[in-house]
C-alpha cells in the first residue's frame, strides 16, 4: 500500500485532481442509479398498479432536498392531470435528463482521469530519468542498459495501465457500487442481505489470486527487461553478430528469453482472468437465488415487494455486479503495475556513491596542479585495482600513462573528474581534496576524449556544441582546429548533417575529430585523453594526433596511450603495472633504464 500511494503522489498536485474527480464520479454514479429507480413508476403505470390512495400520498409535496418525494409528487400530478400517457412522457423526459447528466459527468471524470494518468506518468518517467542521469558511473558499469530503458519505458507504462486504472476503479466504480447497494437496500433490505453473502466468498478467492499474481508480475517484468537488453546488445553489435555468423546463436538466446516471458505473462493472465468469470458465476447464482427466494415471497403474498419493485430490484442487482467485477479486475491487474512500480522505486531510491559534500567548494579556475597522494582503489570486489599511486600533474604540463592493458591507467584517469572516489589516499586539485569540490565545477574545468568517440544521432553541429549555447562561428572554429571542417563541408548538409546512431555514417577518424572539436569548444584548462588514437588507421591517426597537439597547447593534459610514439614529448611518463607506478621519467630517461618495462614496450613497438 505504501508503494501504491507513493506512485500516486507523482500526479501532484494530487488535491487539484481528487476533489473534482470525486465530485464528478459521485454525480455520475447517483444519476446512473436514478436511471434504474425510475423503472418503478413506469412499471406501475404500465401494470396499472397505482390506486387512489397511493396517488393522494404522492400528491403531498416533499422537502426540497428529498429528490424521490419531489419526483413522486410531479409524477402523481402528471398522472392525475394528463393520465397514464402524460405520466409516461414525464418519466421518459426525466429519464433522458438523468442519462444525459450521468454521461456528461462520466465524460468529465474520464477527462480528469486521463489528465491525472498522463501527469503521473510524465512526472514519474522524468524522475526516473533524472535519478539515473545523476547516479555515479559505477552504477552503469554494473547495470545493463536495456534494463534501465525497460524501467523508464515499459515499467512506467505498466504503472499507468494498472495503478492509475485501479485508482479510478477505487473511486468511480466504488461510488457506483455503493449507490447501487443503497438503492437495493432501499427497495428490500432482507433480499439485499441475502444477496451480499457472496461478497466474502469472492473476496477470499480474489485475495488468494492476488498474492500469487504478484510473483508472476515481477518475473514477467524482469524477463521483459532481459529481452530489451538482449535486443540492445544484438542490434548495437550487429557487425559482430554477422561477422561471426552468430545469427542462430542470438536467435536461440532470444527465443529462450521470449518463451520464458510468454510463460510468466500467460501464468499472470490466467490467474487475473480467473477473477472475472468467478465473480460473474457467483453473481448469476445469487440472481437465481434472488429470483427463487423473492419470487416465491411475492407469489405467496408474504413480501411487501410489488412486482414492479421486484423487477427493478433484479435489474439493479444485475448492474451491481459490473462495478464489483471491475473493482476486482482492477486490483488483480494492479499486481503487474505494483511489480513494475517496485522496480521503478528501487531505481529512484538508489543512492549515488559519489556525492557533493554539504559545503562543497565551487572551483572557478585551475591554478596549480592535480596531485595523487598514496591513492588506492578497488571496485565492488576485494581485488585492488590501484595501490600507492603518487604523482603530480602540474599546470600546463603533460603527464602520460603507459603500460599493459588492465594495469589501472583508465582507473587513474577516472579518478580525476571524480567518476569514482579512491578507497585509500586522496586526489587533490590545487591542494583541495576532490571530495570537497562540487562535481559540476570540477568537471567544468575538464575536457575528456576517449578511445571510443561517443556521438549521438543528431546533426554534426549539435554533436560539437553538445548542450552549449554557442554560435555557428564558434563551432566552425573548433572544427577547424580539430581538422574536421574539411570533411564536414563534404557532407550532404554540412554541419546540419545527421550522423546516425553513434555516428555510424562517419569513419572512426572522423568521429574522433568531432569528439576533439567538442572538447576544444569546451575550452577546458585540463584535458584527459584516454587512448584517443589507438583504434585509428595511420592516416586518421596523423590527422587526429595533429588535432590533439593543437588541443593540448597551453593545457594541462593527462594522456593514456598504447602507442608510445604519440607521447614521447610528454613532460613525464608514468609506467603503470598491476595497479602501481613502477617507472617514471621522460621518454629518454626511461629508455636508459636497463631491463625497464618502458624500454621493453618501446622495443616491442619498433619491431
Automatic annotation (TrEMBL):
Residue stretches making up the ABC transporter domain: 370-603
Transmembrane segments: 20-47, 87-108, 180-206, 281-299
Keywords: ATP-binding, Membrane, Nucleotide-binding, Transmembrane, Transmembrane helix
A GO molecular function held by the record: ATP binding
SMART domains in the cross-refs: AAA (SM00382)
ABC transmembrane type-1 domain segment(s): 22-336
Membrane-topology descriptor: Multi-pass membrane protein
Highest taxon above the source species: Bacteria
Coiled coil: none
Pfam families associated with the record: ABC_membrane, ABC_tran
Localization terms from the record: Cell membrane
Primary localization: membrane
UniProt protein name: ABC transporter ATP-binding protein
Top-level taxonomy: Bacteria, Pseudomonadati, Bacteroidota, Cytophagia, Cytophagales
Amino acid at each position: 500500500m505504501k508503494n501504491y500511494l507513493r506512485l500516486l503522489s507523482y500526479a501532484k498536485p494530487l488535491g487539484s485532481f481528487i476533489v473534482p474527480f470525486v465530485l464528478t464520479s459521485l454525480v455520475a454514479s447517483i444519476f446512473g442509479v436514478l436511471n434504474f429507480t425510475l423503472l418503478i413508476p413506469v412499471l406501475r403505470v404500465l401494470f396499472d398498479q397505482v390506486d387512489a390512495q397511493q396517488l393522494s400520498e404522492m400528491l403531498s409535496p416533499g422537502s426540497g432536498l428529498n429528490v424521490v418525494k419531489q419526483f413522486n409528487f410531479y409524477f402523481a400530478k402528471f398522472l392525475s392531470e394528463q393520465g397514464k400517457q402524460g405520466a409516461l412522457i414525464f418519466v421518459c423526459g426525466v429519464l433522458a435528463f438523468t442519462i444525459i447528466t450521468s454521461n456528461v459527468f462520466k465524460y468529465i471524470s474520464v477527462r480528469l482521469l486521463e489528465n491525472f494518468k498522463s501527469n503521473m506518468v510524465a512526472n514519474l518517467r522524468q524522475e526516473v530519468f533524472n535519478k539515473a542521469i545523476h547516479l555515479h558511473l559505477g552504477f552503469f558499469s554494473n547495470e545493463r542498459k536495456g534494463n534501465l530503458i525497460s524501467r523508464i519505458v515499459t515499467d512506467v507504462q505498466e504503472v499507468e495501465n494498472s495503478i492509475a486504472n485501479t485508482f479510478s476503479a477505487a473511486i468511480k466504480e466504488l461510488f457506483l457500487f455503493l449507490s447501487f447497494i443503497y438503492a437495493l437496500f432501499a427497495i428490500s433490505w432482507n433480499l439485499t442481505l441475502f444477496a451480499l453473502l457472496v461478497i466474502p466468498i469472492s473476496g477470499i478467492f480474489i485475495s488468494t489470486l492476488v498474492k500469487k499474481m504478484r510473483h508472476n508480475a515481477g518475473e514477467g517484468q524482469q524477463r521483459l527487461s532481459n529481452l530489451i537488453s538482449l535486443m540492445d546488445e544484438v542490434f548495437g553489435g550487429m557487425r559482430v553478430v554477422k561477422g561471426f555468423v552468430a545469427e542462430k546463436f542470438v536467435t536461440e538466446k532470444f527465443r529462450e528469453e521470449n518463451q520464458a516471458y510468454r510463460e510468466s505473462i500467460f501464468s499472470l493472465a490466467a490467474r487475473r482472468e480467473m477473477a472475472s468469470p468467478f465473480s460473474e458465476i457467483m453473481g448469476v447464482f445469487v440472481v437465481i437465488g434472488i429470483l427463487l427466494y423473492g419470487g416465491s415471497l411475492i407469489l405467496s403474498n408474504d413480501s411487501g415487494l410489488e412486482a414492479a419493485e421486484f423487477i427493478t430490484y433484479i435489474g439493479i442487482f444485475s448492474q451491481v455486479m459490473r462495478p464489483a467485477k471491475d473493482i476486482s479486475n482492477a486490483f488483480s491487474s494492479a499486481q503487474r503495475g505494483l511489480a513494475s512500480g517496485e522496480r521503478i522505486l528501487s531505481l529512484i531510491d538508489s543512492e549515488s556513491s559519489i556525492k557533493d559534500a554539504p559545503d562543497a567548494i565551487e572551483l572557478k579556475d585551475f591554478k596549480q596542479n592535480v596531485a595523487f597522494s598514496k591513492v588506492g582503489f578497488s571496485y565492488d570486489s576485494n581485488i585492488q585495482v590501484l595501490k600507492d599511486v603518487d604523482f603530480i600533474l602540474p599546470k600546463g604540463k603533460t603527464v602520460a600513462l603507459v603500460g599493459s592493458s588492465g594495469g589501472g591507467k583508465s582507473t587513474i584517469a577516472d579518478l580525476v573528474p571524480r567518476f569514482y572516489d579512491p578507497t585509500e589516499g586522496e586526489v587533490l586539485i590545487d591542494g583541495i581534496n576532490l571530495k570537497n569540490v562540487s562535481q559540476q565545477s570540477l568537471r567544468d574545468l575538464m575536457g575528456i576524449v576517449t578511445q571510443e568517440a561517443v556521438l549521438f544521432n543528431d546533426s554534426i553541429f549539435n554533436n560539437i556544441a553538445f548542450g552549449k549555447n554557442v554560435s555557428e562561428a564558434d563551432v566552425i572554429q573548433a572544427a577547424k582546429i580539430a581538422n574536421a571542417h574539411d570533411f564536414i563541408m563534404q557532407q550532404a548538409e554540412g554541419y546540419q548533417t545527421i550522423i546516425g546512431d553513434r555516428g555510424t555514417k562517419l569513419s572512426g577518424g572522423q568521429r574522433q575529430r568531432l569528439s576533439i572539436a567538442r572538447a576544444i569548444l569546451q575550452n577546458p584548462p585540463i584535458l584527459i585523453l584516454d587512448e584517443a588514437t589507438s583504434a585509428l588507421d595511420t592516416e586518421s591517426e596523423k590527422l587526429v594526433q595533429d588535432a590533439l597537439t593543437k588541443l593540448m597547447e597551453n593545457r594541462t593534459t593527462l594522456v593514456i596511450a598504447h602507442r608510445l610514439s604519440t607521447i614521447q614529448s610528454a613532460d613525464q611518463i608514468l609506467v603503470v603495472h598491476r595497479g602501481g607506478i613502477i617507472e617514471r621519467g621522460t621518454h629518454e630517461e626511461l629508455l636508459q633504464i636497463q631491463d625497464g618495462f618502458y624500454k621493453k614496450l618501446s622495443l616491442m613497438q619498433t619491431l
